[in-house]
Amino acid sequence: MTDSKIHLIGLSPDLAWLPPAVGAIINTVDILAGGERLLELFPDYQGEKVPLTLPLHDWLEKIEKLRSDGRSIAVLTSGDPGHFGLATALFKVIDRGKVVMIPSPTVVQQAFAKLGVPWAGTEVVSLHGREGLGDFWGAVYRASHKSGTGYLAIYTDARNTPEILAKKLLGRGQQHWRMTVFEDLGSPDERITSWSLFEAKLRKFSQLNLVVLECQKKGVQISIGMPEEAFIHEAGLITKKEVRVASLAALELLPDQTLWDLGAGSGSVSIEACALLHHGAVWAVEKSPLRCEQISANRAYFGAAQVEIVEDEALAAISHLPPPDRIFIGGGGKDLPAIIRLANAKLKTEGLMVINLVSLGPLGQAVEVMKECGLEVEVTQIQAARSEPLGASLYLKPLNQVWIIKGRRP
């Protein structure tokens, strides 16, 4: 019995570009495996064909069993298997030392070549097999705010089609994008069309497509500690910038983390957190319909695409939210102890919970409950004052003092 290797071969849609050496491998292996569409490209192959079936993990284990039995195998995929491709799943089942990867140009490379645009630094995201759109919204933010080409390439799937993505973008006030859809690239049915999002949401596209978004207007830059006037809010009910800066520092946010903002108000903390969570997500929970509208307006103005708005009571919403790395609670009222306990139960290991309070009564209660939950607690008092004119001089007008309670999960 030989210790056979698997050839993981990426194909271009047009087999005219298939190198002879790769064609020789395909024609001589014992087994040709892959999706039906790719297997049909080789009607003259004389060996055994193993069509891809779901679940993928079980199919890959079957391929590994055939390999370990000494069968030579070529697994067919599209483009570069290491670029949002089959390699990631394959290496979870088969030792990478048993695999020879042979890439072709990716669909993204082909798309940008047809556009005639350099694509180094372009954001690329795949929606295949992903739960939710967290990766997509982070990429939207980076492409519209950070340095780079201003383009975003998306491998779509059956649930997140070009028209659905157009609707979702418009739903977040992200209308400043031009969408180009590459359908059936390399086939006789190839079609490349460009649309506004308002046009794209009304159309239907081939299931085999790649979307390229071009940002036509950079988002308003977000900085930490922006003035309250930068946000739409209700009658001064907003976390003051001095407290916002201290609270975000206490949260110790890292770029790929998930933050809950419970009692989000106008969303000022959520919005500024996006400047730190380039690859992360923010869940802004607010029970007031008016304030949810304000969060939505602020999200659209700043292009803070990572912010998910949940209109609900915090206690009701918590059970439906993804596990957080960080939790910010802006008050909480009589439900604060219950909110702390329920939120802590979903907080990830080494996570942080930060609470802002303005009155003494809930302070001791919150500290006690956080300690009961096993959190390591520290309390910081913020007392700030701002200058105001007084004749020809200035005086300092104090703001309400705030306690910042920080609880760290060991």
How would you characterize this protein structure?
The protein is of the alpha/beta class and 410 residues long. It has 14 helices and 19 strands. It has a seven-stranded mixed sheet with strand order 13-12-11-14-15-19-16, sandwiched between helices. Helix 13 (336-346) runs parallel beside helix 14 (360-372). The mean pLDDT is 93.
Short note summarizing the structure:
The chain is α/β, with parallel strands linked by helices and 410 residues long. 30% of the residues lie in helices and 26% in strands. It has helices at 20-28, 36-39, 56-68, 87-90, 107-115, 134-145, 162-171, 197-200, 241-251, 268-273, 289-302, 314-318, 336-346, 360-372; strands at residues 6-11, 31-34, 48-51, 73-78, 99-102, 123-126, 151-155, 177-183, 191-196, 209-215, 258-262, 281-286, 307-311, 326-329, 352-357, 376-382, 385-390, 393-398, 402-408.
Shape: elongated
By DSSP, the count of extended strands is 19
Distance between the termini: 51 Å
Overall pLDDT: 93
- What is the radius of gyration? 26 Å
Strand order of the largest sheet: 13-12-11-14-15-19-16
